[in-house]
Specification:
The complex is a heterodimer. Chain A is mainly alpha-helical. In chain A, about 55% of the residues lie in helices and about 5% in strands. Chain A has helices spanning about 10-15, 20-40, 45-60, 75-90, 125-130, 130-140, 150-155, 160-175, 185-190; strands at about 5, 110, 120, 175-180. Chain A has a two-stranded antiparallel sheet with strand order 3-4. In chain A, helix 1 (about 10-15) crosses helix 2 (about 20-40) and helix 7 crosses helix 8. The longest helix of chain A has 22 residues, at about 20-40. By secondary structure, chain B is α+β, with helices and mostly antiparallel strands. Chain B has four domains: about 1-50, no CATH class; about 60-105, no CATH class; about 115-245, Jelly Rolls (Sandwich); about 255-325, Phage tail protein beta-alpha-beta fold. In chain B, the strands form three sheets. In chain B, strands 2, 3, 4, 5, 6, 7, 8, 9, 10, 11, 12, 13 and 14 form a 13-stranded mixed beta sheet that branches. In chain B, strands 16-19-18 form a three-stranded mixed beta sheet, with helices on one face. In chain B, strands 15-17 form a two-stranded antiparallel sheet. In chain B, strand 11 (about 210-215) and strand 12 form a beta hairpin. Classes of the chains: A mainly alpha, B alpha+beta. At the A-B interface, strand 1, helix 1, helix 2, helix 3 and strand 2 of A face helix 1, helix 4, strand 1, helix 5 and helix 6 of B.
């Protein structure tokens, strides 16, 4: 009796483009935390992130008549906010040296939980040893749930490179994966205690 | 090493990720069967699952700024909106006093130009919207909409509580959207009952057709036909769809509370919502019972009497609390 209709374009975005303030507010409420979280991993300067998000939403509303339809709001907004943050950081001169065009910094600190049959040993280290790009791609794939297509466009990388990047990153992380059955010997050797909280950044 | 590659391949599989993240029921079916058929791959799957589910810390401080950002953004939205009304802009420029007045309106954020209509307990209101559509607002409910509807503006309304909508079909086929909780309903011209109380969203369609979006984020909508009832529970993300008798779901419109073989817990919740009372049930006799009955909405006594007679329980009303005892 019921038909499921798969939308080709995002309906909430369409409503916003048609001038709906309620839809725009829903978009803000739904996606701004995601954007702030992602942004604050690109730079430790919270002010830059807040400015970028505010500027982005103001511009969206102003330019809504010129904005195109989208299949993924997440992708559209993450790409826009990334561009803004990178541009703003480049503008403030102190960053120019440290900041290569595409090589953004990306902070990722693991949080441990016991919900699976496995634990991570040295996860902190293995994530720290990844490149900025690798950390970012892990985040975009598993946290922001973007597709490879979207990730490669966002990071301006060929799709194959994006895939290789995440494959190697996962291989490194996988090395620190330990079955819970082995946890006793690991504890005995004191390795787990060495997981000191260190901040990763550029 | 070979199994490492298999684990990573799995952790990168689009459909596998959807299954692990429980975001696609179709993917779930596929992978559950796959697990049954490949019990030897359990370790592999668990490892890949763990990889997909690694958690990372967020900076909670950064999120605290969101309300402030929102205020700035919607201040901007309001100004943009008002630019279209040149007369207004002129007045603002001309009169400092008026500017102060407008400033205080901005203080109320984006709802400065919005109309809010409320009902209290056991109250029902009839409202005609700017486009001629009619809303019957149930007890303990609220709708919010823009005061002025220009012909090319989207028709939209926010609901909390419950209302019956009779939406006028316009010659330009403009859509009408009702937002409630995380869900939304999109229609052209039709009649339906929409309730959004606690964590539940319930839509019963009387005539025409509507599109139901369980979440404004979902990529899919449900096309409903007359007699369909959709219940979406925000708490556990469960969706229930069935054919129902329309009248029992919009009886309140005619000032009638009607229950048709309804589980007693739901009956008690409905009483709480309609009359703004707290119900304390100390009686074991009501367990797993269903209740059928109709009563005028302004007479709580009748329902109380019916319940106490049907289930042989003592019901007392103290202050704002209904207490049920054996």
């Amino acid at each position: 009796m019921l038909n499921i209709v798969r939308e080709e374009y995002d309906h909430l975005w369409d409503q916003f483009l048609a001038g709906s303030v309620i839809a725009f507010e829903k978009i803000f409420d739904t996606y701004s935390p995601e954007l702030i979280k992602y942004g604050s991993k690109l730079t430790t300067d919270d002010g830059v992130v807040e400015d970028a998000v505010q500027e982005l939403f103001c511009e969206l509303w102003e330019k809504r008549s010129k904005i195109s339809r989208t299949t993924s709001i997440s992708y559209y907004l993450l790409t826009s906010v990334r561009r803004k943050i990178v541009r703003n950081l480049q503008k403030s001169r102190k960053f120019i040296a440290a900041y290569q065009m595409q090589d953004t910094c990306f902070t990722l600190e693991p949080e441990f939980d016991n919900s699976t049959d496995f634990i991570f040993n040295h996860l902190q280290d293995s994530i720290q040893n990844l490149s900025n790009h690798q950390r970012e791609i892990i985040y975009l794939r598993y946290y922001s749930n973007l597709s490879f297509d979207e990730i490669s466009r966002l990071m301006e990388l060929p799709k194959k490179s994006a895939y290789n990047l995440i494959f190697i990153a996962l291989q490194n992380i996988k090395k620190s994966l330990v079955s819970k059955g082995n946890i006793v010997s690991e504890l005995a050797s004191g390795i787990l205690g060495a997981l000191a909280p260190t901040l990763l950044c550029c | 090493m070979k199994s490492d590659i298999a684990v990573i391949d799995l952790a990168l599989n689009e459909s596998f990720i959807k299954w692990v993240k429980k975001s696609d029921p179709l993917a779930s079916k596929y992978w559950e069967r796959w697990m049954e058929e490949n019990p030897d791959k359990r370790q592999l799957v668990e490892e890949a699952r763990t990889l997909v589910l690694i958690k990372f810390k967020d900076n909670p401080k950064a999120l605290e700024k969101i309300p402030q950002i929102k205020e700035h953004v919607f201040d901007h939205v309001n100004k943009e909106h008002n630019k279209q009304h040149y007369l207004w802009r002129g007045l603002v420029a001309a009169s400092v006093i008026f500017a102060v007045l407008v400033g205080s309106l901005y203080y109320f954020g984006i709802y400065a130009s919005q109309q809010v209509i409320n009902t209290t307990y056991a109250e029902v209101k009839n409202i005609t919207l700017p486009d001629g559509s009619k809303v019957t607002l149930s007890a303990n409910s609220q709708i919010t909409f823009k005061k002025k509807w220009d012909s090319d503006d989207p028709r939209e309304i926010k609901l909390s509580g419950e209302a019956f909508f009779d939406i006028k079909h316009l010659s330009n086929h403009s859509k009408f959207t009702v937002f409630a909780n995380e869900s939304a309903v999109e229609v052209l011209g039709t009649e339906f009952n929409f309730s959004a109380r606690r964590d539940k969203v319930k839509v019963v369609l009387q005539s025409g057709s509507i599109k139901f979006y369980q979440s404004v984020k979902s990529e899919e909508s449900l096309m409903m036909t007359p007699g369909d009832m959709v219940v979406f529970n925000n708490k556990d993300n469960s969706l229930d769809v069935k054919k129902v008798d329309i009248n029992t779901h919009s009886g309140w419109k005619n000032n009638l509370l009607s229950f048709n073989n309804m589980p007693i817990e739901e009956v008690l919740i409905a009483i709480e919502d309609f009359y703004g009372l707290k119900v304390i049930n100390n009686s074991s006799k009501l367990e797993n019972e269903n209740f059928t009955g109709i009563s005028p909405m302004d007479s709580l006594d009748q329902i109380i009497i019916a319940l106490s007679k049907t289930f042989d329980v003592k019901i007392e009303i103290q202050d704002k609390t209904i207490i049920i005892n054996n």
